Amino acid sequence: MKCRQFGSTSRQVSQIGQGTWNIERESTGTAVAALRRGIDLGMTHIDTAEMYGSGKAERLIAKAMEGRRNEIFLVSKVLPSNASRKGVIQACAATLSRLNTDRLDCYLLHWRGTYPLRETVAAFEELIRDGKILSWGVSNFDVDGLAEVCGLSTSYPPVCNQVLYHLEERAIEHAVLPWCAAHDIAVVAYSPFGSQSGFPAPRSAGGSVLQQIADLHGVTPRQVALRFLLQHPFVFAIPKASTRAHVDDNAKAGELELSTAEVARIDAAFPRGDRPRSLPMI
User: Could you tell me which residues come within 8 angstroms of residue 120 by beta carbon, excluding any fewer than 6 positions away?
Assistant: First the structure.
């Protein structure tokens, strides 16, 4: 699996990782086997959150990581309802306990809530000083919010912004992606195969383009779609894969190379549209 530098950190992180939203709905054996298969294939960037299954996803990851923690770039997220200075510290302690680890490689604010961001940032910086987390970032932040949190950090700048990004939702390309690139902040795409609308149907105009390009490479349309998102050097993707077969499919996208003409065809088939008033999220 190809790796790239994760924002302003010195870490080389797998460009395709493993998301775990709703993974707890699978049997423990199936979920753990899928995660371990991903680690074997180099998909060592694992993302979770205290919200996912009310901590159940974190416990599943703990099982999958047994004996392999040092291979993993481990990310979790704190809920906005826990984002006071004291609340972040307590939430992080609970997350570390569920994950059976002594540190997170990156800790994110899941989305902006009602607590002042200065409290959340102060807590993140305290956790870094204490060695509980190695870096911090945000999720679902537009440019205004990113600028605000960057202005609040005195010693440890945010290293990533996790956002909704797939072929039919390219809003981040208007401002968020360029801003993050200019400020050395990694962009992590969640739900890279689509969300409510689902993956483009094979007979749709866009789906047909993906299928044609996939046929030329002997791959799947999903692999083509995932590879397209990774064209930008600051982008990472964390598709969920709850079975070994899905993990294998995702990993193969890292080996795919699209031509300039193919990228242009996909770009035309899935126009990014106008910039929305607010950043889409799920």
Answer: 78, 83, 84, 85, 88, 109
**Nearest-5° angle of CA 38, CA 39, CA 44?**
105
Residue 203 burial class via C-beta count within 10 angstroms: exposed 0-12, middle 13-18, buried 19 and up: exposed
**Mean pLDDT, the chain, whole residue set:** 95
Which H or E element spans position 73? Answer: strand 73-78
Pairing of strands 136-139, 235-237: unpaired
Q: DSSP letters of 21-37? A: TTGGGS-HHHHHHHHHH
* CB-based contact 156:128 (threshold 8 Å): yes
pLDDT for residue 196: 60
Task: For residue 133, give the 3-state DSSP assignment.
Answer: strand
**Residue 85, class by beta-carbon neighbours within 10 Å (0-12 exposed, 13-18 middle, 19+ buried)?**
middle
Helix then strand then coil, % of the chain, to nearest 5: 45, 15, 40
What pTM value is reported for the model? 0.94
Helix count and strand count (H, E) for the chain:
10, 9
Q: How many CA atoms lie within 13 A of 104 on its CB side?
A: 31
